[in-house]
Design goal:
Distance between the termini: 66 Å
Strand order of the largest sheet: 8-13-9-10-11-12
Structural class: alpha/beta
Number of helices: 18
């Protein structure tokens, strides 16, 4: 079977061969999963004939039974990929209804049963009925609901809204980079409301109201890490008239909804990174002792437990240690698998292995031996990232004593921006040694992108906050063109020293894969003759 993944991505994928109609095979596949994606479909057996095995219905029901049997608590979310027109043909054009009724009647019959089984269960679920993606024009007409159907949608209809909850100062910074002039923001706020009594006296009460404003100004206080958004109210309510100005303060743990006329790849990527803890954490830690291990990801503001592993290890018996050794190997194997599953070595710069005694050294030796045996390139190539330290126990709390160690602090200092700092250092070095492979400024860098020459593109996030829409779009297009030629794109924070250095180079620079001489760099013919 061929899968459209890179070798590195394939190393993180476990392929389980089995029968979608066999409950035991499904159980092996979804064991320990946090999310189960079910995309089963009937096999076409000939012109106008589709298999009637009921794989959609049987497979989904088996998944539900397995989840209930094995995961009574902390149940995973079940995502079912259904089909447009399931249950009703009202969202299908008349000309296509005979096709749906004849060719797709059988699989749709089973999908209806599968959807009902999911809805009747107690598990958390999402049912997706994909529509046909077209190359049509921008319509700006959308429907959004818990249950929403449709037949087609244009790729240019990229507007929409997202509901976010900032959990830390870093999230406020992400919100600042997301919000643009002309966007719409909905949030709860405190508003002073004046009221007049029958006697003519005026009193002012402070009331919490929900407002939707069209954004006209955004201010970010770098010292207080506070975000204030000013705009006109566009949804009239009891306390605030339509068109009246108001300033919203985004607060921690207070939800807000952001609506955009168009979501570009930079905004979508920022939301993905902000919401995915694995994209934020560049330090991972595994604390362990015999039979117990905790896998954590660390950001600047939080420590998140990704998995807790407990494996009973039999005691050593006089004259025989076979059962003990088997238990230890079983424990080490589960920790090894957890590291591969939860740690993204493209992001993580340091992995702390902490334990009392010699557990960490013994596990590290086992892991490297397994990596060599199975040709696990990810673990082998990232061997230097593992830092072995002593802890008093294998519990998460032991990390506090680790982080207080001055030597550990020095090793972990500024790991999040290490890649950016190295990139800007390499750029200046290349600019000195081989200037034909180091370009900066939009004009030169965009020409390098046209030639497919960019190896690493460096851009400050300040450029994507430009109030001028055409300016913002041209930098987004530059990123897309560079990614199309497999360039590594780094977005620098303008609040970091590396971002400040890049801003001195107009905010955009590129390291090229090969030397490139532009026409503007060539010496004029008359000058050569003189």
């Amino acid at each position: 079977m061929l899968l459209p993944f890179t070798p590195e991505e394939l190393s993180k994928i476990t392929v389980v061969k089995g029968d979608a109609l066999a409950k035991q095979d499904i159980a092996r596949t979804i064991e320990g999963a946090d999310v189960v994606l079910c995309s089963l479909g009937a096999k076409i057996q000939g012109l106008g004939k589709v298999s009637d095995q009921g794989v959609e219905e049987i497979g989904v029901k088996s998944v539900i039974e397995i989840i209930k049997e094995t995961r009574a608590s902390n149940m995973p979310r079940l995502i079912m990929v259904s089909s447009t027109g399931v249950g009703t043909n009202s969202d299908v054009p008349y000309v296509m209804r005979p096709f749906y009724s004849l060719l797709l009647r059988t699989p749709h019959k089973h999908k209806v049963v599968a959807e009902k089984a999911i809805k009747d269960s107690s598990i958390t679920y999402t049912i997706v009925r994909p529509a046909l993606l077209t190359n049509g024009e921008l319509t700006k007409k959308y429907r959004a609901d818990v249950v929403c159907s449709g037949y087609t949608i244009s790729q240019k209809d990229e507007s929409g809204s997202v509901r976010l909850i900032p959990e830390g100062p870093e999230d406020i910074w992400h919100a600042y980079n997301l919000i643009q002039l002309g966007d719409q923001l909905t949030a709860s706020t405190i508003r002073g409301v004046k009221s007049e009594t029958k006697t003519g006296s005026v009193s002012t009460d402070r009331k919490r109201v929900k407002l939707t404003i069209s954004i006209e100004d955004v201010f970010f206080d770098t010292y207080a890490c506070a975000l204030r958004i000013k705009g006109r109210n566009i949804v009239e309510n009891k306390y605030v008239a339509f068109g009246q100005y108001h300033t919203l303060d985004l607060e921690l743990n207070q939800p807000f909804t952001l609506s955009k006329p168009q979501w570009d790849l930079i905004s979508l990527k920022r939301i993905e990174d902000a919401c995915d803890i694995t994209k934020q954490a560049d330090v991972a830690a595994v604390t362990m002792q015999d039979g117990l291990a905790v896998v954590c990801l660390l950001t600047q503001y939080m420590t998140v437990v990704r998995q807790r592993i407990e494996v009973p290890i039999p005691r050593k018996r006089r004259g025989s240690t076979t059962n003990y050794e088997k238990g230890v190997l079983r424990f080490y194997d589960q920790v090894y698998r957890a590291i591969k599953q939860h740690i993204d070595f493209d992001v993580v710069k340091v992995v702390i292995l902490g334990s009392p005694g010699f557990v960490r050294e013994q596990f590290f030796d086992y892991m490297m031996a397994q990596a060599v045996k199975t040709e696990d390139r990810v673990i082998i190539e990232n061997k230097s990232k593992f830092l072995l330290v002593h802890t008093s126990s294998g519990h998460k709390g032991a990390l506090e004593e680790v982080m207080r160690d001055p030597q550990i602090k020095a090793r972990l200092a500024d790991t999040k921006s290490a890649e950016e700092a190295r990139a800007i250092d390499n750029f200046y070095q290349m600019l000195n040694d081989n200037p034909d492979r180091a370009f900066y400024g939009y004009e030169d860098v965009s020409k390098a992108a046209e030639h497919g020459a960019i190896g690493t593109l460096m851009v400050t996030d300040e450029l994507f906050r430009a109030a001028d829409v055409p300016t913002r779009k041209k930098y987004i297009q530059l990123v897309e063109d560079s990614q199309a030629s497999n360039a590594n794109v780094l977005v620098f924070s303008s609040l970091h020293v590396s971002g400040e250095r890049l801003n001195q180079l107009t905010g955009v620079a590129a390291l090229l894969n090969f030397p490139l001489v532009l026409e503007s760099d060539e010496e004029p013919e008359s000058d050569r003759e003189n």
